[in-house]
Amino acid sequence: MNAVPRRIQRVLAGISLPVYLLLYAPLSVIAIFSFAPSLGHPGPNVAAYGMLLNDPEVLAALRRSLTLAIGSAVLGTMLGTLMGFGLSRFRPAKGGGFWVGTLPSLIIYLPIIMPSLVFGISELIFFNFVHEYTGLLSAGLLTMGIAHVTFQAPYVALVVYARLAGLDPNLFEASQDLYANAVKSFVFLTIPVVRPALIGGFLLAITLSIDDFTISFFTAGPGSVTLPIYIYSAIARKGSSPEINALGSLMIATVIGVALLYYFVTRHRERSNRIPAVA
Amino acid sequence: MGTAAQGEARSRAWRLWITSGPGLFWIVLFLLIPSGVMLGIAFFTNSDFGSPVLPLSLDSFSQVAGYGILGWSGANFTVLLRSLLQAGVATSVTILLAYPLVFFIVTRPANMRPVLLLFAIVPSWTNQVVRTYAWMELLNPFAPVSHVAQVLGIIPPHLGLMPGDFAVLVGLSYNYLPYMVVPLYAAAEKLDWTLVEAGRDLYASGAKLFFNTVFPQTLPGLLSGIILVGIPAFGDYVVPQLLGGDKAMMLGSLIADQFTFSPDWPYGAALTLIMLAFTCIGLIVFRRLTQRLGGGEGAML
């Protein structure tokens, strides 16, 4: 970009490179400390990783985290896709009044805007009351899953909505002219068209689920300790340990691996500068 | 004709509810109603076990204002003020870091930009607990960083850079920096550089050039960024909990305590009401600003 003089470009680089360093410094520190010497293991070693992989508690937490993420993402993507599709296709173009025009948007933005602490505590109280009066929904993976779907669906809806908003409405008219009924047009036109958004939304839903701590923490029960909750209580109990560092490093490595994969997959598919979502 | 149009409208409305209904119903049932219940609890009386009982009262709100059995205390105001201040300062830090970073990225060749942006965002994809824990490792009293600070006399010997307000500020800024980078990048990428050149032709330079040509164009992105950083930072729970300690308590920890360690649900609910009130004020103010500036957000619902 020749609009920015070389001198200023140098200043920008001079500030940005330390910022990049700062972004990765804490993550690298965890990785380095995971190899730190510990009792009975002098010198750099991988003992912490061995301990981790033989710890049934950690493996159970990992299994729960994955079950929760995939299970909630499936339902969250379904509900979210239908919402995004319905609102972009069937809502009157102009206004639609409060009930049809404004209220659905307000409801969809509620989980996104609400501070996660308020979100989590509201659910805690609600599930508590429901359990007290009906005996259903005792705190556990199910209540966590319900809460996760609640914050995943709106994000998926936004992704699908954004995809459909950039689409020619004549396409749908054309499918009607060709005598496709609503279901056929949904299966053969809408689904293929929104497939990238569908896959993107599903991955986003999984990321959101794995990234969340606060909402999970307040909806979890004694038998539903997931990885983030395991780490949090381990820190609270005994501070840092090589094992926690090893677990953290594995989680960071997974995320960076997935990010690189995402980059290389999308780079070949579309050349446009897509802006990845923050989660 | 009229009936046909009406029928058309009715079938549209019916399809709208068939498709969007389940998701909207889910959110209403599992979030709108629960938060309503939670706010209602603020008007009940606290029982010995911390659960809400009748009669209705406003005791919880006088507790929020600082009145207790021991008389008035300003502790809650301090916590609220600290939360607002931390959120404000953390937002400013992210702005100061995000502007150079974003303009560094947009001035690179087009094929390098996505990967540079990705590298700025990837840390935010790791779990918040892990990210915050990483700063505990970096700032604790035995870490080299704290040692350097001790030698330089910034902090007294044997103390670390955590727990405390400084550590919370660092943690919040680190956590939410990508939330500022993304909307700013979206605005900066669409920047009309001919305006900048026109400004330069008129002999504007330096700060004047920036604030008259670049800044107004990135303002919508900046406002979105302030919302995306300020609101979650204000209500954050993990960062002050792990990096703050007792002396750096923020509103989130104060609320959570009322539902965990020393249960007092009505008091906790009243505090939550305060948090939501400030969140709404922030949202409304910035929405008004965005509308006044005519910043369209693209495909918004």
Write the layout of secondary structure elements.
The complex is a heterodimer of chains A (279) and B (301).
Chain A: H1 6-33, H2 47-53, H3 56-89, H4 97-113, H5 116-134, H6 141-165, H7 170-177, H8 182-211, H9 214-219, H10 227-238, H11 242-269
Helix pairs in contact in A: 1-11, 2-11, 3-6, 3-8, 4-6, 6-8
Chain B: H1 2-41, E1 45-46, E2 52-53, H2 59-64, E3 67-68, E4 71-72, H3 75-106, H4 113-121, H5 128-139, H6 144-151, H7 165-189, H8 193-201, H9 206-234, H10 238-244, H11 251-257, H12 265-292
Antiparallel strand pairs in B: 1-2, 3-4
Order of helices and strands of chain A: HHHHHHHHHHH
Q: What structural category characterises the helix and strand content of chain B?
A: mainly alpha
What share of residues of chain A is helical? over 70%
Q: What is the distance, rounded to the nearest whole angstrom, between the alpha carbons of the first and last residues of chain B? A: 31 Å
